[in-house]
Amino acid sequence: MKSVPISPQVRAALGIDEGVQALSPLELMRAILLAPVDLLWNGGIGTYVKAATESNVDVGDKANDAIRVNGGQLRARVVGEGGNLGLTQRGRVEFALKGGRIYTDFIDNSAGVDCSDHEVNIKILLGGAIADGEMTTPERDALLVEMTDEVAELVLRDNYSQACALGSARAQADSLLPVHRRMLTELERSGALDRQIEALPSDEELETREGGLSAPEFSVLLAYVKIVLERELLADPIADEQWAAEVLTEYFPRPLRERCPDRMGEHQLRREIVVTQLVNEVVNRGGTSFVFRAIEESGASAADIIRAYVVVREVFGLRDLWAAVEALDNQVPTSAQTMIYLESRRLLDRAVRWLVSSRRSPLDVPGEIERLRTGITSLMSKLESLFRGTERETLRAHAAGLASHGVPEPLAERTTRLVYGFGLLDVVEVANKSGHELDQVAEVYFVLSEQFRVDDLLSKISLLPREDRWQTLARMALRYDLYAALAALTAEVLNSTSSDLPAQRRVRAWEEANASSITRTRNAIGEFGDSRADLAALSVLLRQIRTLVRTAAAV
């Protein structure tokens, strides 16, 4: 066929000029690729899109040279890849940088791989049952049919979470660019990644690019982060710890858990399944750079970061929060859901570092959950009444800000309590160590927090730059020094005043006994409150607060 007639309807659908009456088959296929549509779906074999910087020879698919287009020429809003290699990676990045929505073929196709993994792992488990005479082949086949829908749900759950992770990564692409640059450098230095091969930008490119990494680049980075973490965790005993048995069990469909619970612990790939599940969840929920930043700032191992993640997730009930966000699909703007995910990451970041910095390695996951969860749960519902003065107003303003972006008010309030509930870890810790009543500790802690304008100081610390590792470490050290000082002050007030007095009067009595030191510190805080965020000034101020604690303790 030399030409194909083009109807008015086809011209309109493909955005073809009005005077075109016919096109050759090759011209028509090219027009389809360039159509102004919502979704361009590639489901075939061949590479149809490259970058303007690439030649057809670079692509290596001669059969489609005549119709191939550049990523910057595409007029679709979204590209989905049902087939492999439909676009070159540089073509994807070119399309993404001009505003198109696209991941990569291995992301769009990951459900198929995930499904195959489940299939193989289930058959390995059931193969042992058949070999031992516990089940016949027809019984196995019937069980496989029974589990089909649930396997699909498990697979879709994994891929949904991964897509959410990539969406959240784009939301922080600009703010976390310095971190992403350091990650790429470290992956290269360790030999895990070749930027040139993976079409990832050089540091020089990132210097001039606005908006940080694109979604296709994040897709590649996400994959490498998971690969490296899995390798590290397989060399650690984390998969053999008793609490990890639940991770293994949750991987399999419910009928299999009921029929073969004893066989799961004997699965030949048990450790690999546990590690893969842990890494997927932690990276998807915590973010691409979550483990990297936590290691960089605390010096802890990847395994302990993941142990701490599990503790924080359980202690603060994060699974319930995430389920509430997911229930809002197609009801609120995606940007509102992303905001809640990012807020929960703030808590994860801070609480995980608190745990790995204050506990011995390896972290005792069930022990820490038992030690912290009851107290945190008890205080969380009282948080708004515990906060005082301007800090209570800040809490309410934060919740109102989330609600103004489309987050339902109850969820906005719940999320705010979680983010501002980080200090409860110190409250529970002081109560556990001192023997004082939990509610008394909390009341004194939040009176002192308001008196010394802790929330203002934390806001100042958040404004400090984190362009390099040392600035990041300095920010982290200041934040934890401030919380540690507040906890130490709380313990000192509790130990030096009568438990018969209400919290406000206990603090007042302590202040009267340490008037001169407190006045100097308060004046410094007042002066600092009106100045810009400055690392040196913050350091001096925190030294004054620590001196105040030591002076008071010596009186």
TL;DR?
It contains 29 helices and 6 strands. Strands 1-2 form a two-stranded antiparallel sheet. The chain has a two-stranded parallel ribbon with strand order 3-6.
Describe, in plain words, how this protein is organized in 3D.
This protein is mainly alpha-helical and 555 residues long. The protein has helices at residues 8-14, 25-33, 56-59, 89-97, 105-108, 110-131, 137-171, 177-189, 203-208, 215-234, 245-251, 254-259, 261-264, 270-286, 290-298, 302-315, 318-326, 334-358, 365-380, 383-386, 389-404, 409-420, 424-434, 438-451, 454-462, 469-496, 503-513, 515-529, 535-554, and strands at 4-5, 22-23, 39-42, 49-50, 69-70, 78-81. Among the domains are: 1-33, no CATH class; 37-102, no CATH class; 439-554, no CATH class. It has 29 helices and 6 strands. The protein has a two-stranded antiparallel sheet with strand order 1-2.
Fold blueprint:
Layout: E1 4-5, H1 8-14, E2 22-23, H2 25-33, E3 39-42, E4 49-50, H3 56-59, E5 69-70, E6 78-81, H4 89-97, H5 105-108, H6 110-131, H7 137-171, H8 177-189, H9 203-208, H10 215-234, H11 245-251, H12 254-259, H13 261-264, H14 270-286, H15 290-298, H16 302-315, H17 318-326, H18 334-358, H19 365-380, H20 383-386, H21 389-404, H22 409-420, H23 424-434, H24 438-451, H25 454-462, H26 469-496, H27 503-513, H28 515-529, H29 535-554
Parallel strand pairs: 3-6, 4-5
Antiparallel strand pairs: 1-2
Helix pairs in contact: 6-7, 7-10, 7-14, 7-18, 10-14, 11-14, 15-18, 16-18, 16-19, 17-18, 18-22, 19-23, 21-22, 23-24, 23-26, 24-26, 24-27, 25-26, 26-29, 28-29
Pfam family, one: Bac_GDH_CD
GO molecular function: glutamate dehydrogenase (NAD+) activity; L-aspartate:2-oxoglutarate aminotransferase activity
GO biological process, one term: L-glutamate catabolic process
